[in-house]
Amino acid sequence: xxxxxxxxxxxxxxxxxxxxxxxxxxxxxxxxxxxxxxxxxxxxxxxxxxxxxxxxxxxxxxxxxxxxxxxxxxxxxxxxxxxxxxxxxxxxxxxxxxxxxxxxxxxxxxxxxxxxxxxxxxxxxxxxxxxxxxxxxxxxxxxxxxxxxxxxxxxxxxxxxxxxxxxxxxxxxxxxxxxxxxxxxxxxxxxxxxxxxxxxxxxxxxxxxxxxxxxxxxxxxxxxxxxxxxxxxxxxxxxxxxxxxxxxxxxxxxxxxxxxxxxxxxxxxxxxxxxxxxxxxxxxxxxxxxxxxxxxxxxxxxxxxxxxxxxxxxxxxxxxxxxxxxxxxxxxxxxxxxxxxxxxxxxxxxxxxxxxxxxxxxxxxxxxxxxxxxxxxxxxxxxxxxxxxxxxxxxxxxxxxxxxxxxxxxxxxxxxxxxxxxxxxxxxxxxxxxxxxxxxxxxxxxxxxxxxx
Length: 453
Hints:
It comes from Streptomyces maoxianensis. The protein is built from twelve helices and ten strands. The protein is an alpha/beta fold. The chain has two domains: 26-271, Spore Coat Polysaccharide Biosynthesis Protein SpsA, Chain A, CATH 3.90.550; 285-410, no CATH class. 37% of the residues are buried. Mean pLDDT is 79; it is low at 1-7 and 412-453.
């Protein structure tokens, strides 16, 4: 793949021009393993559909990953007879490995894939790739679980699919609805940055790709699809599910410790409408206020809960200090990630230390309020203590936001990659080295049956 922009940021999304080059706009990859019976029929059906309905140049790439039957011969015959078909031969199994290899070598600006059985109605293909062509979205997926989707499959597969997506939502906080539908597309410049971060080479490849893209703030477009189950599918459900669960654990652990450099997937400042300056409002203030209020409300509930627990076995000052300390650590971590958008472990200890200073100021304010209450009322009730603490915490909250914004997480607009002119990008930020688990593309043994068109 070509990389024409700095590795630290993605270029702004732009509408792809239909007549800008002789290259195809869309490259549809069909990963296959021992599909000699169905391959030709499905490829010809897909080609006929694209030729009749798709308004841009296209290519169909058959990615044969280590088939042991006559699939390679069928793919080669299709390449010879249809100008828009290309055949790849890989000597290693794995859908993820096949997609990584073909997508990484494709010159089309929009890359897609679908299963060879064409279970998904092809009328959804143009709606799938249209948001990528227009520059609206970064990735697109077909969803069998959307309300308007029409799906025909047995109860066993239905249960497994919904259970798997429920696991993703609960463990990885995924918001997309269908991770494993074999009907997806991605813009090439996004794939350039995202593929080296995806470790899995099998069926979990899709899920890992989507989770990382979503966590990096990329836009994922979902298309409801009509889908009919293939009763002759060769997917081994039990072993696939086990590998998927291992992948969920691995990705969840990497995200929890900040081991993935997701900042390299950031869009340049100004590409997101939320980044635009508002008259009289400092950049990002509106978003930060909303995030801070949400985090503050949850932190206050945590603080009151901890105070009530500690108060049962200790005095009010000790209970207040312990509850405020624990809630302050959680508050700093949450504001760091959610309010001010700081990811990874860089300066995390420093931020927590500064947060503890802010905690000390809040402690002085709330402890002073308790001391004043004790001096005035003698032996106040628990409810009165809580009321005073709530009022003191409201004042401390305003002060905490100001300190977090101006001191702990200062608004450094100069660090954000702002183009000085169209096409000009600032220097990348953060670590731009590939993670240790990134798989080099050279590991795949590729045999092209013919030179690229």
